[in-house]
Fold:
Amino acid sequence: MSKFDKYFLMSSSDAVDYAAEKLSIFACDSELDCKEIGDGNLNYVFRVWDKKSDKSVIIKQAGYTARISDDFKLSPDRNRIEAETLRFQGDLAPGLVPIVYKYDDIMSCCSMEDLSDYTIMRQALLQHKIFPNFAEHITTFMVNTLLLTSDIFLNHQEKKSLVKSYTNPELCEITEDLVYTEPFNDYKHRNDVFPPNLDWVKKELYSDNELKLEVAKLKFEFLTNAQALIHGDLHTGSIFVNENSTKVIDPEFAFYGPMGYDVGNIIANMIFAWVNADATMDNEDESITFKSWVENTICEIIDKFKAKFFKIFREEAKEILAKTPGFSEWYLSQVLHDTAAVAGLELCRRIVGMAHVKDIISIDAESARLRAERICITIAKRYIKNRESYNFGEQFVNTLKEVENEFSQ
Structure:
């Protein structure tokens, strides 16, 4: 009998025992140690390593409630979805996700490659570090994992089977509430608005019925458009980087949804990095350099995504009607319009919702934080309301620059 024959929530010492018993990574005479390193909203993450060698592993376990709040009762099956998604994405975008060693359906845990020699991208961006290869890497990841899991390329029966396998109702409900609903009305009273900004938020978000109508349309698009296997939570806290490499992690929110959801999340989180630099960098030349890199990266993400999308579409599309002249242009335009809208939704929900980002809450000066938050929400509203006008990277950046100028007057 093994203590791991029945589910329980592990401690660091349990994770050591688990690694020794269940994983074939370590030698029998290994001296294992462990640290709980998770700082996310949902799961428990342990790093186990051998003191006598350079071998290590990450063990990620799902609980029955979210760490952010016991209000979220969740099935630990999300860990299965994550493990299967990482393996699938590893086939589609080799080298851009960590290697999965084992998924344990009893303990609801996934053992995977340790990326300790990388840095969480959000942390690096808060230090205003620049990653020239990021746009190239992330667009390859997104095009390969999104387009190649769509009806454009898959046999329709195979794709419908994947939709069933990746149905993820509990985590989708979190997105439906925290991204598409609560930031615009706070009907569950779970929003966490910076107090000096509360009246402005009530006016600009809660009282803007034109905005809420557009968000309602977007929510029903999210609910019904099983377009591709999306990551579902693709932000800079779910990406490891170093100078030469990028690894996407944490696809536990994965399900079949609109492609633009992933692309829009990336754009929004680059804007968070921009406003943080704008608010916190004292050296003007260094601030201009970093913000210019962010702006160029936003342009590159959109434009490289488009170029790679069209290339794969032309070369590998299987659906006969998708090859009709003009269809690929129409299809991609819908993805880009969704991208703009989702970027807006992410900008709003991270400012007023219960799941904030350090880019914003680490801004100490009240006036600087107010400016950063209002820039984000103002950009967001334009992205959402005018989403059909966004087709090029420059257009996304132009809105950022226009809003920056308005708040500088």
